[in-house]
Design brief:
Blueprint: H1 6-11, H2 24-54, H3 58-74, H4 76-85, H5 88-112, H6 117-145, H7 151-180, H8 182-202, H9 217-229, H10 232-253, H11 255-262, H12 267-286, H13 288-294, H14 297-317, H15 321-349, H16 355-383, H17 386-403, E1 439-446, H18 452-468, E2 472-478, E3 485-492, H19 495-503, H20 511-519, E4 527-532, E5 549-550
Antiparallel strand pairs: 1-3, 1-4, 2-3, 4-5
C-alpha cells in the first residue's frame, strides 16, 4: 500500500520499538485492542471463579479455559480464510459485536442467577469463537495500518499489549469479583469491546479493487493449505514455532507450582512471578527494534530459545524469589521476541491474498505446541517433579535452538510479494466462461543440451510456484523425436481458476519465467497452448483446443 503526505513523512523517520505508534490508525486500534484484552482477562478470571461456586467438580473449572482456547485452534484456518476473502475490518467488527452481545447476555444471566455450569461453558465457548475469528483479521490488518518496515515493531507491540493485559488483568479481575461479584466483571468485559467497535467503525482502509469473484470458503481453505505447504519459509516457521510452543509452555503452565513448591510461597508469590513475566514481555517488545539491528531473524529466535532454556533451568533449581523472578523476567522477554519474530516471518513470506490463512496456520502450530506442552509438563510434574519438568523443557528449548542449523528461518524482509500484474486474460477462438474447464495448459521450450541442468533447476522452482498458486497435475515432458523440445504441462479446474492462478504471481517470482525465457532457443519465445479437456462423447469434443499462442511476458 503506497502512502503519501504526512504518513510517508512519518514512515521515513527512524524505526524504533515505539515508532508504529506514530501512525494514528495503528495507535488507536492498538490502544482499543489492549483495553479489550484487559476485558478478556477479567472475564476469564470471573468465569473461573464463578465456576468454583456453581460446580462441584475441579474438571469443570479446568474446562473454562479449554472452552475459550479450543475454538481458537479449531476455527483458526476457517477464520483465516474469511479474513482473506472478506473485508478484514468488517470481519473484526462483526467478531467484536458478536462478543459484545454474548458478554451482555452472560452478564444478564449471571446477574439474575440463572447461570449453570454448562451455560457458563457455552458463553465462554462463544466468546472464544469470536476471538478465533477476530485474531487472524487483526494480525493481517497490521500491515494496512503501518508500513512494511514498521511491521516487526507493530507485531511486538501487539504482543506487549497482550502480555500487559495478561499480567495485570487477572489481578484486576480478582479485585472486581471480590468487591462486586462475577456479574459485574462480565459487564466490564462487555464494555471493553465498545472502544474497539467505535474505532473500527470509523476506520476506512484503502482496499485494492476486487477484479475476480470471491472463492468459496472451502476452496479458500484448500488454497491456504496448499500455499503454505509449498512455501519452505513458512513451513520452517510452523515447525520451529511448534517446537518452541512445546518447550516454552512449561514456564507459564507450571508457574503456580513453582511459586508453591520451589519457593514455598502463596498467591502473592505467584502474582509476583506473573508480574515478572509481564514486565519481561514489555522489555522484550521495547528492545525488539534494537535486537533486530544486531541479529538476523534466525539469530533472534535462536538466542530467544537459549534464553528460555536458561529461564527454565533457573526456575527449576532456584528456591529464592528474586532469582526466580529474574529467570521469569528473561522468559517473558524471550517469549515475546520469539513469537513476534515468527509472526513477522509469516507475514513477510506470504502475499496479501493469503496472509491471514498463513497466520492462522502459524497460530494453530504455536497454540497446538503450547497445548501439548502444557499437558506434557503437567504429567511429568505429577509423576516426577516440577524441577524435572522444567529441566526437560529447557532441553527442548536448546533443541529448538539447535534446529536452526537444519531449519533456519529465512531473512524475508527483502521479498517483494506485490502482484506482478503483467498477465492479461488472453483472447480465445473457442468461447469460454468462468466455469469452463478443466483447462489444460502446455508451454513448449527449446533447450540446448548444455543448458538442461540449469533448465531443470529453474523448472523445479517453476513447479513449486505453479502448485503453490493453484495448478494441478504439473508435469515436465521431453519430446522423443526432437531432444531439444521440452513441454511444461499443468491443469486448472476452470477458466476462472486459470485466471486466478496467473494473477497470483508476485514480483519476487518474476526471475523464474525470465530465466526460462533466456534459456529458450527460438525467435518468438516459448509457445503456449491453452486447451479445454473434453470427453469423446461430448458434442463439443471437436472444439477442445485453441491454436498455439505466443506466451505473455510471465506465463
Amino acid at each position: 500500500m503506497t502512502r503519501t503526505g504526512p504518513e510517508s513523512a512519518i514512515a521515513a523517520q527512524p524505526v524504533s520499538a515505539l515508532s508504529p505508534l506514530r501512525f494514528p490508525v495503528f495507535r488507536t486500534v492498538w490502544a482499543a485492542n489492549v483495553m479489550s484484552s484487559f476485558g478478556g482477562q477479567i472475564q476469564s478470571v470471573a468465569a473461573a471463579w464463578l465456576m468454583t461456586s456453581i460446580a462441584p467438580s475441579a474438571d469443570m473449572v479446568a474446562l473454562v479455559q479449554s472452552s475459550v482456547s479450543l475454538p481458537i485452534v479449531v476455527l483458526a484456518l476457517l477464520a483465516g480464510a474469511m479474513a482473506d476473502s472478506y473485508d478484514r475490518r468488517k470481519v473484526m467488527l462483526a467478531a467484536q459485536v458478536f462478543m459484545l452481545v454474548v458478554s451482555v447476555s452472560l452478564t444478564v444471566v449471571a446477574w439474575t442467577g440463572w447461570i449453570t455450569p454448562w451455560l457458563l461453558l457455552l458463553f465462554t465457548f462463544l466468546i472464544g469463537c469470536g476471538t478465533a475469528f477476530n485474531a487472524p483479521a487483526w494480525q493481517a490488518s497490521v500491515a494496512d495500518m503501518a508500513p512494511r518496515e514498521q511491521l516487526p515493531g507493530a507485531v511486538a507491540l501487539n504482543s506487549m499489549g497482550f502480555n500487559i493485559a495478561r499480567s495485570l488483568g487477572p489481578a484486576i479481575g480478582g479485585a472486581i469479583v471480590a468487591a462486586v461479584g462475577a456479574a459485574f466483571a462480565f459487564l466490564v468485559n462487555a464494555i471493553s469491546y465498545t472502544g474497539l467497535i467505535a474505532v473500527l467503525s470509523r476506520w476506512r482502509p484503502q482496499r485494492p479493487p476486487q477484479t475476480l469473484p470471491r472463492e468459496t470458503l472451502g476452496v479458500a481453505v484448500g488454497a491456504g493449505i496448499r500455499y503454505v505447504s509449498m512455501s519452505g519459509a513458512i513451513r520452517t516457521v510452523l515447525g520451529r514455532s511448534l517446537v518452541f510452543g512445546v518447550g516454552a509452555s512449561a514456564i507459564l503452565a507450571l508457574l503456580p507450582l513453582v511459586a508453591k513448591h520451589r519457593i514455598a510461597g502463596g498467591p502473592l508469590t505467584y502474582g509476583a512471578l506473573l508480574g515478572s513475566f509481564g514486565v519481561g514481555a514489555v522489555a522484550g517488545a521495547l528492545s525488539s527494534a534494537r535486537s533486530r539491528q544486531w541479529l538476523s531473524t534466525e539469530g533472534l529466535v535462536r538466542w530467544s530459545c537459549v534464553a528460555m532454556a536458561v529461564a527454565a533451568v533457573i526456575a527449576a533449581l532456584s528456591t529464592q524469589l528474586l532469582l526466580t523472578m529474574l529467570g521469569i523476567f528473561i522468559a517473558g522477554a524471550a517469549w515475546v521476541l520469539a513469537l513476534s519474530t515468527f509472526n513477522v516471518s509469516v507475514q513477510l513470506s506470504a502475499p496479501r491474498w493469503v496472509v491471514a490463512r498463513a497466520l492462522s496456520l502459524y497460530q494453530m502450530a504455536a497454540f497446538g505446541g503450547i497445548a501439548v506442552g502444557s499437558w506434557l509438563w503437567g504429567v511429568i510434574s505429577e509423576n516426577r517433579s516440577v524441577s524435572a519438568a522444567l529441566l526437560g523443557a529447557g532441553a527442548v528449548m536448546l533443541a529448538c535452538a539447535g534446529l536452526g542449523r537444519w531449519m533456519p528461518l529465512a531473512q524475508a524482509t527483502w521479498l517483494n510479494l506485490d502482484p506482478l500484474r503483467r498477465w492479461q486474460e488472453p483472447e480465445t477462438a473457442v468461447p469460454v466462461g468462468p466455469r469452463t474447464g478443466p483447462v489444460v495448459v502446455t508451454i513448449e521450450y527449446r533447450i540446448r543440451e548444455e543448458d538442461i541442468p540449469e533448465f531443470f533447476a529453474a523448472m523445479a522452482e517453476r513447479r513449486r510456484i505453479r502448485i503453490r498458486d493453484g495448478a494441478r497435475r504439473w508435469t515436465l515432458l521431453r519430446d522423443l523425436g526432437d531432444p531439444q523440445v521440452w513441454v511444461e504441462r499443468y491443469t486448472t479446474p476452470t477458466w476462472l481458476d486459470y485466471i486466478r492462478h496467473n494473477s497470483r504471481l508476485t514480483q519476487d517470482d518474476a526471475h523464474v519465467p525470465e530465466r526460462l525465457r533466456a534459456l529458450h532457443q527460438g525467435p518468438d519465445g516459448p509457445v503456449v497452448r491453452r486447451m479445454i479437456e473434453r470427453q469423446t462423447g461430448s458434442h463439443h469434443a471437436g472444439h477442445t483446443a485453441g491454436g498455439p499462442e505466443v506466451e505473455e511476458p510471465h506465463v
